[in-house]
Amino acid sequence: MLGSVFGWFFYLFDPLANLAIPPIQPQARLRPENNVPVAAEGPWEDIITGHYGVPPLIRIHDRDGIVKWKFERDDVQQDLPKEIRNCLYSSANDATELKWMRNGTAVAAIYSSLALIINHTPDNPETDKLITWAICRDNEVLWNAHTLEPLPGDRMAVGTTGQRPWDGVLVYNTSEALPLDPSPPILQNVTGLRAIHGLIWDEAGSMLWAAGTDLAADGSDPEPARGTIHAYPFDEATGLLHADDAYVYRLDEPVRQDVEWGVGFTWWVGLHDLVPVPNQRKFLVSEDSSLHAFDITTGRFTEHHGAVVDKYMPGFRVTTNDRHGVDGDGVLQEQPLGDLKSFSLAPDGSFIYVQSLWQKYRGNHTSLVENGVYRAINEGLEIYRSRWFGDIDGWPKPR
């Protein structure tokens, strides 16, 4: 046990952090001079949703909620290392993250006590639902991991989602040629961003973007925490991410979560989901209390609150009518845009989102807006995230 603990501490500091950062060029096929378009995916019918429970459930379904594919732990028939099997069959109810990868032939997920990659090959039952990479989260570093994202070169970035200075992003080799290892080596540890809830690979900029807080979101630091976006340039030659303060973008003001959770609650508002706008160099980002838009080209937050909905998400509707409370100054505040644990924009203008119930951690349905018209699907299920299952135009995952 002590060996395992000291093994983690070995990686707490990135020995490459002080290296000079070389200029990072966009991926060759996205450089303007090559004029090679990225093919659009679609039609935008498939949605991937994680349902909390024991056991958790992952479903790929259409816009009416009709299931096309599912994964739960009893579907796994392969021989697994004992530690991976134990984490798969733990009492954890998590279905926290779900990502399209490998051109749709695999799903990256946080499921039960694992971060893992699952084959999605419904036309080939022999390979379908095989686990090709997994790491147990049953340790002090990864137990609260909320998100992961594929990187080029069969690498996977996992946000640790902790509150300490050494929390941040861990990178692993997920090559299918490697045997399953319950404790795979850490290729890189990029520290300094706390409470990471969103990661997005940016092929056009050759960067990994992360959304979290600059200091401890739980209030354990002496200074207040602010919602923060951090970009990490990716060096194709070395396969390494680089941290640079030039790519750190903070919201202006720290905000307490007291409106929802009561006066005296120590947590600061943090970021939840980092969502690319199709075919634009822009992100929308959700937080505990509202929404913001971020322009990558200028490095600025450009719209806030209702202006984000008006411009990018017409037809948004708050899912319950009880999203209000009293702030630390005794003023009644409404938070209709708060607690979007996930949302996802399709190129056809449709969007989906999961808004947690007031003073709860998850929602009880997925909200879908088509042509400005709202409806609910997956009703009655405990859900943290639903996403379009496909490449977002202008934001392809690594192939």
Automatic annotation (TrEMBL):
InterPro entries: Quino_amine_DH_bsu (IPR011044). It comes from the Eukaryota. Keywords: Signal. Residues 1-20 form the signal peptide. This is Uncharacterized protein.
